[in-house]
Specification:
Strand content: under 5%
Number of domains: 2
Order of helices and strands: HHHHH
Radius of gyration: 21 Å
Number of helices: 5
Number of strands: 0
Bound molecules: heme C
Largest sheet: none
Low-confidence stretches: 63-71
Shape: elongated
Helix content: 40-55%
Structural class: mainly alpha
Distance between the termini: 64 Å
């Protein structure tokens, strides 16, 4: 094998790997993006308080009287459905994704109160969660 043809096959192999990696990435953002999102949404316990009517989901029943965000206690604010985010998110001073990021990390107060639940997953999971919620809102805002 000449030096040149060796280089050529090395290059060819490299391109192949790159292509495979790209394919894999494409997959996480393609068809199974929804199931990925739902997996995170459940794993991070968002379903304990929030419904998601867009996907026919009601919040999981929790023990009564534990300040579960259901609005059955005096100082509880009811957790809103997350199929379409409110103007408090979409028309905040921050960009919507930054607002959600800060709100769910308890770095931002709304009407003097922090969000009841701290997001504890990875940054990659956080991004999928936020992007998907914003996409759902945009979808349901169309006439
Ligand atoms: C313990 C109950 C509870 C859990 C668990 C919870 N939330 Fe919330 N969430 C609330 C309540 C209550 C509000 C309303 C707060 C307010 O209006 O001040 C809220 C508000 C929000 C909002 C703003 C919605 C809007 O349209 O204004 C977003 C976004 C949100 N939650 C996302 C999440 C995500 C994502 C998770 C999972 C990581 C989660 N929440 C877990 C109780 C909860």
């Amino acid at each position: 094998m000449t030096k040149l043809s060796f280089l050529k096959s090395a290059l060819f192999l490299g391109m192949g790997f790159l292509f495979l990696t790209l394919l894999k990435t494409e997959n996480t953002w393609g068809a199974d993006q929804k199931s990925k999102f739902l997996e995170i949404f459940k794993k991070q316990e968002c379903t304990k308080c929030h419904s998601l009517k867009a996907y026919n989901m009601a919040p999981a029943p929790t023990e009564k009287g534990k300040g579960d965000g259901w609005g059955d206690e005096e100082d509880d604010i009811e957790a809103p459905d997350l199929s379409k985010l409110s103007d408090k998110v979409m028309k905040a001073d921050l960009k919507p994704d930054e607002y959600i990021r800060k709100f769910l990390k308890k770095q931002l107060k709304r009407d003097g109160k922090k969000h009841k639940h701290m997001f504890k997953g990875t940054d990659a999971e956080f991004k999928i969660l936020i992007d998907h919620l914003l996409a759902l809102t945009k979808k349901s805002s169309k006439p």
